[in-house]
Each structure stands twice: as structure tokens, then as C-alpha cells.
Amino acid sequence: MIIALDGPAASGKGTLARRLAAHYGLPHLDTGLLYRATARTLMDSDARLDDVAKAVAAARGLALTDFDENRLRGREMGEAASVVAAIPAVRAALIDMQRAFAQRPRGAVLDGRDIGTVIAPNATVKIFVTASAEARAQRRALELRGRGEDVDYYAILEDIRKRDARDRDRSDAPLKPADDAKILDTTDMNVEAALAAALAVTEAAMEAIRA
Ligand code: CDP
Ligand code: CDP
């Protein structure tokens, strides 16, 4: 069973992915961490984010374990990740490890932008998680404040709009729902309600396979 969750920044896909993975006892890969860690490696060595050769080397050098999430979740890292994620050679360097993860024996849960469209087009369940930019900015601002960052809601809203546009407009694996994805708009849902909806979609997909 492969569960693919895609969607824009702070839509709640990561939270849903973790909860679904725990529910079904499946491994989970947050693929955004791969792009964040690639950008972090470049920044740590004072390289430019658009240095393609260095970015590809950084992506190839990643190990799926030992992500230092503390250093990857800061406000500037989402933006930096979306810059390296627009480089086709970086995306190509990260495909095999994501596909291998998806092919784990009992299945896997992956969340990102292109799981249902590129990484696992044959996923059992595809959910495109979305919410209004305002709701997402509110969530991200709360989350970053919880991490001790002093952020302004309007600045986060601007970040989110800019990142959505960059992710949607890139040529390689742009952010868009797969044709067969179920759209889950969580604007007016709390985490529990979103989880109940995602579980219902997943159970229906499994039922359809059994039938
Ligand atoms: O992975 P993604 O960036 O899509 O979002 P996330 O990290 O799962 O969620 C961002 C924040 O929004 C977290 O702090 C969640 O607890 C919160 N959230 C929420 O308040 N309501 C939801 N329906 C989903 C997430
Ligand atoms: O949690 P949030 O949605 O804010 O960000 P993320 O999922 O960690 O992704 C950070 C950036 O990495 C995104 O804005 C995308 O540009 C890129 N990304 C991607 O291109 N493809 C993926 N499968 C996952 C992330």
C-alpha cells in the first residue's frame, strides 16, 4: 500500500502523513526534507543555491536518515528548498531514493509535491491536501512561533504565496494534483477532522482494491 500526499506549503500534508503512517504501521518519508537538506548543505558551504553542479552533488550525498530537522524547518529553509527544487538535475538526483522508499515491502507513506504525479504514479491512495493561503499562513506562523521564531503573519503569507507560485510555475514536476487524486480542502478542518477524512479516502481505496 502506497499512500501519496501532495499539496502546497503548510496545508497539513506532513501531519496527515505521520498520522496515517502511525495508523497503518507504515514507514513515512517527508520528501520536502530532501530539498531542504540539499539547500542546507549548499548554504553551509557558502555555495549559491543556483550552482547546479554543487546542488546535484549535495542531493546525491544525502542519506535518508539523520536529518537535523531543527536546522531544516526554519522560515528561510522552505524558500531555499523551493529554489533548488526547481533545478531539474536536482530532482533527477533524488528520484531513485524516493522510489525505493515507496517500494518498501509492506508499503509506505510519502508526502511532498510530486508523489502522486512523478514518484509513485501507481500509488494506492493519492490525496492532494490544500487550504486557503490565509489558513496556511496562520498555521505556519503558529508553528514557527512555537519553534521560537519571531514571525509576522503577513510576512509568512507573502512567503507562502511566493513559494506556491514558484512550485506551480516550474517546468519540472510542478505542484498540481494528479488526475486521480482526491482533493482534501482542510481550510475549515482541524487536524482530527482532516485525519478522519483522509482515513475515509484510504479505506475506500483499499475496499475498491479488495472488491
Ligand atoms: O507538511 P505541511 O507543510 O503541508 O504542513 P504541516 O507541517 O503538516 O502542518 C503545518 C501546521 O499546521 C502544523 O503545526 C499542524 O499542526 C497545523 N495544522 C492545523 O492546524 N490544521 C490542520 N488541518 C492541519 C495542520
Ligand atoms: O512543509 P512545506 O510544505 O512548507 O515544505 P516542504 O514540503 O518541506 O517542501 C519545501 C520545498 O521543497 C517546496 O516548496 C518544494 O519546492 C520542494 N519540494 C518539491 O519540489 N517536491 C517534493 N516532493 C517536496 C518538496
From TrEMBL:
<dbReference type="InterPro" id="IPR011994">
    <property type="entry name" value="Cytidylate_kinase_dom"/>
</dbReference>
<keyword id="KW-0067">ATP-binding</keyword>
<dbReference type="GO" id="GO:0005524">
    <property type="term" value="F:ATP binding"/>
</dbReference>
<keyword id="KW-0808">Transferase</keyword>
<feature type="domain" description="Cytidylate kinase">
    <location>
        <begin position="3"/>
        <end position="199"/>
    </location>
</feature>
<dbReference type="InterPro" id="IPR003136">
    <property type="entry name" value="Cytidylate_kin"/>
</dbReference>
<dbReference type="InterPro" id="IPR027417">
    <property type="entry name" value="P-loop_NTPase"/>
</dbReference>
<dbReference type="Pfam" id="PF02224">
    <property type="entry name" value="Cytidylate_kin"/>
</dbReference>
<dbReference type="GO" id="GO:0005737">
    <property type="term" value="C:cytoplasm"/>
</dbReference>
<keyword id="KW-0963">Cytoplasm</keyword>
<dbReference type="GO" id="GO:0036430">
    <property type="term" value="F:CMP kinase activity"/>
</dbReference>
<protein>
    <recommendedName>
        <fullName>Cytidylate kinase</fullName>
        <ecNumber>2.7.4.25</ecNumber>
    </recommendedName>
</protein>
<comment type="similarity">
    <text>Belongs to the cytidylate kinase family. Type 1 subfamily.</text>
</comment>
<keyword id="KW-0418">Kinase</keyword>
<feature type="binding site">
    <location>
        <begin position="7"/>
        <end position="15"/>
    </location>
    <ligand>
        <name>ATP</name>
    </ligand>
</feature>
<keyword id="KW-0547">Nucleotide-binding</keyword>
<dbReference type="GO" id="GO:0036431">
    <property type="term" value="F:dCMP kinase activity"/>
</dbReference>
<dbReference type="GO" id="GO:0006220">
    <property type="term" value="P:pyrimidine nucleotide metabolic process"/>
</dbReference>
